[in-house]
Amino acid sequence: MSYDVAVVGAGIVGLAHALAAARKGRKVVVIDRDTQANGASIRNFGFVTVTGQEAGDCWRLARRSREIWGEVAPAAGIEILQRGLVVTARRPESEAVIDAFLKTEMGAECRRLTLDEAQETIPALRRDALSGVLHSPHEVRVESRTAIPRLAAWLAEAHGVAFRWSTSVTRVATPRVETSAGVLEAETVIVCPGDDFVSLFPDRIAPYRATRCKLQMMRVRPAAPVAFAAPVMSDLGLARYKGYADLPEAAALKARLDSDQAEHRANGVHLIVVQSADGSLVVGDSHHYDTTPDPFAPVAVRDLILDEMDQVLDLPGRTIEEHWVGTYASAADRWRFTDAPDAATRIVVVTAGCGASTAFGIGEETVSGLFG
């Protein structure tokens, strides 16, 4: 069987490239070693984040990806569960970062909320603990564990994309693609390996000095129903997300947090809380880096995440329903890379944990570079 484009990897980055190629009228096959997406693409918040992304092409591609999510979600039967973002501040240093951010290009259409407005949006906020709140209208939130399979099914049904599940790719020498199920041919091959740096083109990937980030997340059930109109973040996010953290004003906040919350900072904890259709909350996360992260999830790290949530939200009697570990590709000096082993082959890796937020834009960029 021959194709115009073969995409290796059926996570969100691979599916985004399949969509971009299919929209160009190409005959596309997606090949994945699992029976369905099972990595970082389904172990995350499903939070398509624009505000707070690193200035430059990351922020620009996040905006474009959010637009494409808006096109794809209704067509594929993917529910948009929440819109926008609420970032809470408990310190004057955090408010200074918010004020500085609002003066940047990236702050367009964002604004401060009064505490009354904030509590109307998120009734569970601990109002007396907050000094300021930033609101962004740009974000959307989907349920990753169902959205990614629906996206794949829609690509097959609406765009004729072929899927080869439970099939590992052992070698690529475009147009020849060798797999565990035999050989296929494709004029162009796009490899989206996630955090697998050794199975294909290890010599091409190695110079980017990528490693892996392990994170902890959980599903929390409030004791009583509570509505979250938008996802929630906190001071720790202002010191981590580069759209805020790279501002000069963030230096004072980082120093304050290093003093006030040294253990949280040492474990890479920052707070994101999103709500699912059944009222439960997906909460995270932490960040630990290693070439081969261990599979364990220390309760102490989980409790640091819950501590930050409890500083911001009043959820008495909440219980934990699920707790999991995920990994994604990471690099200290870049948020993504695209490598070209030859004119017809591309390797595309997102190295900052923002694949759901940027993949559709990256897919368009890659495919446009290949086909115009």
What is the CATH fold-level name of the largest domain? D-Amino Acid Oxidase, Chain A, domain 2
The general outline is globular
Helix- and strand-based class?
Answer: alpha+beta
CATH level 4 superfamily of the largest domain: D-Amino Acid Oxidase, subunit A, domain 2
H/E element order: EHEEHEHEHEHEEEEHEEHHHHEEEHEEEH
InterPro entries: FAD-dep_OxRdtase (IPR006076), FAD-dependent_OxRdtase_HpnW (IPR017741), FAD/NAD-bd_sf (IPR036188)
GO molecular function: oxidoreductase activity
Keywords: Flavoprotein, Oxidoreductase
Family: Belongs to the DadA oxidoreductase family.
Explain the overall architecture.
This protein is of the alpha+beta class and 372 residues long. It has helices at 12-23, 57-76, 92-102, 115-121, 144-159, 202-205, 235-238, 242-245, 250-260, 262-266, 299-312, 355-371, and strands at 2-8, 28-31, 47-48, 82-89, 111-113, 132-141, 162-164, 169-173, 176-179, 182-191, 211-221, 232-233, 272-275, 281-284, 288-290, 319-330, 336-342, 345-350. The chain is globular, with a radius of gyration of 21 Å. It folds into two domains: 1-46 and 143-208 and 334-372, FAD/NAD(P)-binding domain (3-Layer(bba) Sandwich), CATH 3.50.50; 84-138 and 211-330, D-Amino Acid Oxidase, Chain A, domain 2 (2-Layer Sandwich), CATH 3.30.9. The longest helix has 20 residues, at 57-76. Helix 1 runs parallel beside helix 5 and helix 3 (92-102) packs antiparallel against helix 9. The strands form two sheets. Strands 3, 4, 5, 6, 11, 12, 13, 14, 15 and 16 form a ten-stranded mixed beta sheet that branches. Strands 1, 2, 7, 8, 9, 10, 17 and 18 form an eight-stranded mixed beta sheet that branches. Helix 1 (12-23) links the parallel strand 1 (2-8) and strand 2 (28-31).
